[in-house]
Here is the input.
Amino acid sequence: MNDTTHIFFGLKGDPFGKQICADDLWVEPSRADAITRLVDTALGRSHALVLGDPGTGKNCLVRAMSARLPATDYRVASIAHVTVGPRDFLRQVSLALGLPPHGTAAAVFEAIQRSIRTTWAEHRIHPVLVLDEVHLMPDRTLSHLHVLTNFDLDSNPLLSLILVGLPELQDRLKLGVHRSLLTRIRTSVQVSPTTLADTAAYVSRRLELVGSRSDIFVSDGMTMLHELAAGVPRVVDTLAWRAMQIAAQREERVISRATVRRAWQDTPLA
Here is the structure.
């Protein structure tokens, strides 16, 4: 964090950094409903699809879902590297579940299923596997996912999948080769950009968490921030912080429309 900006605004931390406790995640009403649906899906030992454009907060929803699942009964594991073939993907699953990723694809698959069965039979723990960037997953790997969840002739739901990706993932799943997986997914969550009111509430919450006691962004500054960022929280983070840096350099206690515009020119999105 830039110390000059930090000191100038009297903040005790980075207001727009990635390191934020799940309990402090800001969730507007529409996303709160989405989180509840994801939690209910996991509690029901089913599968879910989380779709949204880059930076809209898909992983924040998944983090919030994970925090609300009882740790004694559910084990959430995540895999980000999904751009691999079926054998390497199974090895990724093994690592996520704490298993040695050795042997043939068939042996690794059997080890995964055996471990999931044992964990449920002995401890009544249900694994929830979060797969990120699934829109990048090769077809030959994506077409194998439903096999991973098939226990006892598909009658025993011992593993839940949370598939996270860009909106085009839904179109891919509608293709014939993937329909077996699509028909197993119970919940679909669409993550949209925020409204102006939501952007303002989000920025206010992030600043409050690091000790801000005043409105740093004036009304027209906040409007410009929302418009330029198109309601995408990740872009809001980048643009708001750059605007604060510029304001600190100019010794401006509040951030106006002009300062946000100046900050926008310093981002690669301009």
The first strand starts at residue 47 and ends at 52. The longest helix spans residues 105-123. The chain has a mean pLDDT of 92.
